[in-house]
């Protein structure tokens, strides 16, 4: 088993049995579901909106070269410096070069999953920079030295008491445990950082080809300040984030808010098209956009799963996933958790190491049903299973083959099938005597589950009884 | 080859394999968007009511003022109630004259400012580009609202708007931005929907996470 698989198995077993964790997540998710469902009803036709969003993303991703070219040409025309990073290392190197050129010491960051993907923070801290995560949830995670738990709500697994303790230990500041007081404490700390920071680094939710702008969605105003106060602004963005037209935001911004947090629109949706322009009161002197590939073109080359590049990172599939809700965000051991993470991580980081995530699914399809851009998530999990068991992955074992041969014989003969069903009912009764012991043939399975009883009557028998 | 060329080469090669369009072809028209998006009413009166309701749900304050005199009076009341010492504004004529009339220590961002001082301001008073009925949103840009920090750094953001600036929905606001600025876009365009907030602690909403704790929209009738 690969190291990530061992970690996943161990962590998910531990977390699934952690009732406290499950209670916290359950409470948060129920609150989310209530507001999300109210907001969906606010649309005249939510399913229609999903179709339009899927169509728009299909157009964008399948003409990625054209839209990317247009986006870059226009944003450069306003004095933005655009950089290209083929992989994570190049991405970090580009940003380090900017920090060195600017002689930066303090860096302020707004929330960016792409920066987590290339482990930018750790690298900057290791190189001696003072880095502040300004999003409240990310700030708490940074203080605790943890990875974000969830794409949208990084600290959703913590209680106010735990956050109070973290602030007391790491900031040496005591407050009550009220969310209001804790937030105001973080606000005060972060205000000082904003005023000191030499460079501000942001992520991006969309890159608009038609107008050459990036768009950032947030609630706190931390990205607004990150892009307003430091002299240099850097945006790290995946190449797949393009939208063709400015008006496409009219559809995507509300959909992202509804699915992400259950809001109609988040507090700040801001487009940036360059550094400070002539006649403007403020803004950064320099603006750098770093476009990151990091295996996205590999995903693009898989026509079957290309739709995953339309993902808007709303986190909706995590929220509805029974696996995520039980094992939690940290068990996945990768930046992108939940169904979307299980689908794309094997492409981004290697199928052999990460194929186990495709098995961490009940294939219930809740993810596919909720996805606002209609990514066929649970079928992609099946495709990853198929790809992982392709001929190169080794042939099925002797017992596996034998089991399926026997099954084929039984399933092909009606009399044998009916006999087996009857015998199984007897077997169920006998199993009751040895339940869970060494002699129980189903013990590996029933250790953590109930064995459902076989129906007293088969469908054929039921029908026979009623036929005149 | 540069990294740019490498990435474009990989994209072009990948796209030689065609994907199946399961949800139809081509970019949807704005009219298609409008058929699925939240309804906005027909008349101006309906849309004004919608904006007011949305703003109140967002915990923003929305008030009509009859004329400039009433606007000045309203600002005086706010200033006294919150004991403003320092204010910030920009060179927009209405915002500027109204802020100056308050007689406080005032920063005008377009003339250059010290960010530590702007942070100390009790209020940032700006104009805007549009009010969006559909979502209760105020649209500002670095041109219309005195740059990037003014509408976000002081703890109270007061917007002076005009009834004629109301637009029905998001697509209309976006086409307005394109018409007004095409070819010379401001470096920042922000859709502000309520005061700054966070739900990162137990999903309990707290206002004023990093941006303004209060958002007041004063809308001139005439």
Question: Short summary of the structure?
Answer:
The complex is a heterodimer of chains A (468) and B (222). Chain A is α/β, with parallel strands linked by helices. Chain A has helices at residues 3-16, 19-42, 46-62, 64-77, 88-101, 113-117, 120-126, 136-144, 160-171, 179-196, 222-226, 249-261, 296-301, 316-320, 322-327, 338-349, 351-354, 356-359, 366-370, 377-388, 398-412, 414-434, 443-446, 459-466; strands spanning 81-85, 106-109, 130-133, 199-202, 206-208, 213-218, 232-238, 242-243, 268-272, 286-292.
Overall description:
The complex is a heterodimer of chains A (468) and B (222). Chain A has 24 helices and ten strands. Chain A is of the alpha/beta class. In chain A, a hairpin with a 4-residue loop joins strand 5 (206-208) and strand 6. In chain A, helix 2 (19-42) packs antiparallel against helix 12, helix 16 (338-349) runs parallel beside helix 20 (377-388) and helix 21 crosses helix 22 (414-434). The longest helix of chain A has 24 residues, at 19-42. Chain A is globular, with a radius of gyration of 26 Å. With 222 residues, chain B is α/β, with parallel strands linked by helices. Chain B contains seven helices and twelve strands. A six-stranded parallel sheet of chain B has the order 1-12-7-4-2-3. In chain B, helix 5 links the parallel strand 2 and strand 3 (105-108). The mean pLDDT of chain B is 96. At the A-B interface, helix 2, helix 3, helix 4, helix 8 and helix 10 of A face helix 1, helix 2, helix 6, helix 7 and strand 9 of B. Strand 9 (268-272) of chain A pairs antiparallel with strand 9 (188-192) of chain B, so a sheet runs across the interface.
